[in-house]
Amino acid sequence: MIKTIFFDFDDTLGNRELYAWNAYHDILKENTDLQDMEFEAVLQEVMIWDQKGDVNKNYIKDMLAKVFDIHLPYPDFNTYWDSLLYKYCVPMEDAADTLTYLSKKYRLGIISNGPSDAQRGKLKKSGLDRFFDENMVFISGDFGIKKPDPRLFLKACELAGVKPEECVYVGDIFYRDVLGSWRAGMKPVWIINQQRKYTVDIPVIHHISDLKKIL
How far is the C-alpha of 150 from the C-alpha of 178, rounded, in Å? Predict the structure, then answer.
């Protein structure tokens, strides 16, 4: 019997594709004189290098210098990025409605990678924090363990007082979210915003609101 639904945050509940684009846009506007097509070309390359947030942002700083001779003034761009991105955070369009529906049937929680302050800042800025008790928000930065390590999922279950087999985990990165939660004994749901081939039989959704059809 499912009692608890845990969620990833970025590109699951939060529209990271949008708020990362907006943040990079403003950073490049502030630090370059590029216009129109030239500007957009750089911005689109940055979004490719970003890999859905799965890289240290100093890599992007280095690539901007190497490929475009653009030199960002931040000594540690990764730290600057973490202090900035949450300010741009917006939820997925149907996230609040879906969480309202699910909260009537299940206990809800977050298991997310990243610095604690940055991830909690996104949750608050998105307005979705009202759906999650503070003791149901588990951020890797608080534990020194990152997804896909099953120990993070198991620690969340332990602290939430629930068994892994009583939990669903919803996330967008197969390696981090689906595999990690599956290894911990949870029931994974993969959310992807595009058509993609896959070889395993797991629940797959394309919009967060699709959860209302399967849970």
Answer: 11
Q: What pTM was estimated for this model as a whole? A: 0.94
User: What angle is formed at CA 41 by the lines to CA 24 and CA 15, rounded to 5 degrees?
Assistant: 40
Q: Name the amino acid, one letter, at 210.
A: D
Residue 151 has what pLDDT?
A: 98
pLDDT tens figures, 107-116 = 999 999 999 9
Tally the C-alpha atoms within 13 A of residue 206's C-alpha that lie toward its C-beta.
4
pLDDT digit string, tens, across residues 114-127? 999 999 999 999 99
Cα 115 to Cα 54, 82, 140, 143: the distances in Å are 13, 8, 7, 10
* DSSP string covering the chain: ---EEEE--BTTTB-HHHHHHHHHHHHHHHH----HHHHHHHHHHHHHHHGGG-S-HHHHHHHHHHHH------SSHHHHHHHHGGGG--B-TTHHHHHHHHHTTSEEEEEE-S-HHHHHHHHHHHTGGGGS-GGGEEEHHHHT--TT-HHHHHHHHHHHT--GGGEEEEES-IIIIIIHHHHTT-EEEEE-SS-----S---EESSGGGHHHH-
**For residue 135, what are its two tokens?**
């003791």
